[in-house]
Amino acid sequence: MTTTTGLRSLERRFIFVIGSPRSGTSWLHRMIAAHSSVASIEGELTVFSRYVAPLVKGYESERGHLERNEWHQGLPLLFTPAEFDESVRNLIGHVYDRLMGRRPEATHLLDKHPGYSHHLDLIERFVPRARFVHIVRDGREVAVSMISAKRRLGFGAGEVEGAAREWHACTTKARAFGERIGARYLEVRYEDLQRDTSGMLASVFKHCELACEAQEVDRIAEEFHISRTQVSRGDTSLNDLRHVPDAIWRVNLTTRQRYVFDRVAGDLLCDLGYARRGWWILGAMEPPAMLLYPLWLKLRRTLRALSGIWSHPAIPRAK
Q: Residue 4 pLDDT more than 80?
């Protein structure tokens, strides 16, 4: 069997930028990647979210069936768990070797994908001792950005409930993981990074054990400042609102959208200090206007379900 001998990348220090979609992960990633000791790419490798996670899930599912003597099939017939992990580690090593080839002198390898927030234990399993930088943004602004990205670019949650659930899941999973790994985890607020880009970036470099002179930090912060460089195809129509507290969500979220976000993820929003209870109410008539909204939603979903049932044949033909 192939071993990890010679996979140079696995001997380097790893940095993973994590956070929910549309929370500033690309912006922070690009600034860290500008450090001369870091190897990375502008895009997203999706190594763990799109490749390793499904592979490991398939193996462990089939191993469970095998151990319960339910059926005998799959890679567990040929590979022990240790051998399987070694093969996966080889795959990961080859990927990051290719990445390191872009900057052979690099001491650190940098990767990011919002989906990594759902696979942090898997990353820890195959790349132990990595350092993580979690960027957290006001979930209401994240929801506005997700809905905009769906409309403009065709990906992500296209409605506020889905956006709130994704922000909540990514944020809570990353924070719980951070509590487990301790000092190797750093939480950065998007708003602080926007307000004091140089200062926060210096803290990030220190956490990642990347030496950097103050002048170089300032240069990188200036080059990638959000007012000059907008990455991840952000919505430029929001630029005039970015420096006004709460303006983005106040202008772009309707009463119903604010109400739904609060029902889904309002507790986390308050726990993080972004809001107080009842934040969604901007007018005296909004609470009574929302009294019957949950009932209306249930009725609408029921009618849609019934319509779907009766509009399709009971026994569809094979295609």
A: no
pLDDT at res. 58: 97
pTM for the model stands at: 0.91
pLDDT for position 232: 67
Nearest in space to 188 (alpha carbons), one of 171, 211, 212, 163? 171
The CA distance from 298 to 288, in Å, is 18
Q: Which CATH architecture has domain 8-282?
A: 3-Layer(aba) Sandwich (3.40)
Model pLDDT for residues 172-215, shown as the tens digit of each residue: 999 999 999 999 999 999 999 999 999 999 999 999 999 999 99
Domain boundaries defined on the chain: 8-282
